Amino acid sequence: MMDVVRSILEDDQGEVDLSKSTKVHKDVELDIDLGTLLASDYNTLDAKTLKSKPDSYLRDLTRDNVQLLINKVWELPVERVDEAIVATLPKPEYILPRSRVIPKPKPLTKWQQFAKEKGIQSKKKGKSKLKWDEELKKWIPTYGYKRAKAEEQKEWLVEAKDNADPTDSPFAKAKAAKQERQSKNELQRLRNIAKSKNIKLPKVGLPTREHFQSSQQLSEALTVARASTASVGKFQSRLPKEKDAKGIAKEMTGMKRKRKAPPLNAIEEKRQNKGLVDSILKSSAKILRDDCSTGIAEIKQSATSGGKKRKGALKNSKSKTAKKPKAGKGKRDLHKKIGGRKRR
């Protein structure tokens, strides 16, 4: 029972606190930034009261600080807008920390820039999103996919003109015209992006030399464009005196690398063969260098001795093994042991 009475008294005390005076005394004045509506209180906290009554203490402290902030707001010049009193806030002084950079405003498109210069204002904001259609007898949106569905319901039948080709489909023509408009809008969007990033683009046709820093880049772009087909440019016609870019065959899969020209003389051929042998016997290159350092005569002698040893080994192996017996041609006696091939 005492707990209930205590809670009622606390509630009554809270109601009385709501009618406090607008004048609040602080030992240290608050640091108030009206631009961000920020009030910083640097006064020391009452630790004993905070531990005993944390909720009421923090509520009273917050109420006093907000009262001081509102008092500063009422000192600003005010005006009445649509039956409401509005105060104009000054520029913020406190710099709020940000985790990311402030996003830059989007550059204006070509049409937006033109409308801004001519003072043209769009009237889309005042329009309603829905409009009444007399044919369908229902409200349809002014844009969006439901708008397209409504147009399909309205144009389910198209009257053919007298001079029109009977084989042509008006629905296919309308679809092709829509795709062409979409492509044009997409091209214009990409041009706006390139313009915002200061990228030069050709107005019509292929890029010119202004868009490439060197002739090598132009040659690489031409080679890549020609080889970007299913046949890797095999059936693509070439310009007069057109050649593939240097070093592009290694990066382009499917392009054949140019074969090396044959050696011009015996010295060049010997050098190429030596390089080929060195690349094959790369692991045993050290042994070959040791042999070469001893002299040509010793290398020849070791080669001949090795050949003689091998021939002698072959003779001994042949002498140990007997000759292959001939078959009996079907006249083999099973009771006699005659050499021949065993049948499995």
pLDDT under 50 segments (min length 5)?
Answer: 288-299
Task: Give a short account of the largest sheet.
Answer: 2 strands, antiparallel
Shape: extended
What is the radius of gyration computed over CA atoms, rounded to a whole number of angstroms?
A: 48 Å
Residue share in β-strands: 5-15%
Helix content: 40-55%
Compute the number of helices.
10
Judged by helices, strands and strand pairing, the structural class is: mainly alpha
User: Kindly, what is the distance between the CA atoms of the first and last residues, rounded to a whole number of angstroms?
Assistant: 111 Å
Q: What is the succession of H and E elements?
A: HEEHHEEHEEHHHHHH
Number-wise, the strands total: 6
Arithmetic mean pLDDT: 76
The largest beta-sheet arranges its strands as: 1-2
Structural write-up:
The protein is mainly alpha-helical. Helix content is 44%, strand content 6%. It contains 10 helices and 6 strands; from the N terminus they run αββααββαββαααααα. It has helices spanning 2-18, 47-52, 54-74, 110-118, 145-154, 170-196, 215-227, 266-280, 285-294, 296-320, and strands at residues 31-33, 38-40, 78-80, 85-87, 130-133, 138-141. The model is unreliable at 288-299 (pLDDT under 50).
Key traits:
single chain, 344 residues, mainly alpha, two-stranded antiparallel ribbon, two-stranded antiparallel sheet, 6% strand, extended
